[in-house]
Amino acid sequence: MRILIANDDGYLAPGIAALVRACEGLGTVEVIAPEQNASGTSNSLTLHRPLSVYTASNGYRYVNGTPSDCVHLALTGLLDYKPDLVLSGINNGANMGDDTLYSGTVAAATEGYLFGVPSIAFSQVEKGWGHLDAAAAVARALVQDVIAGGLDRPFLLSVNIPNRADAAALPRRITRLGRRHASEATIQQRSPRGEMIYWIGPAGAEREAGEGTDFHATGNGAVSITPLQVDLTEHATLDDWRQRLQTAGRP
Ligand SMILES: Nc1nc2c(ncn2[C@@H]2O[C@H](COP(=O)(O)O)[C@@H](O)[C@H]2O)c(=O)[nH]1
Question: Per the database record, which ranges form the Survival protein SurE-like phosphatase/nucleotidase domain (predicted)?
Answer without folding.
Answer: 3-183
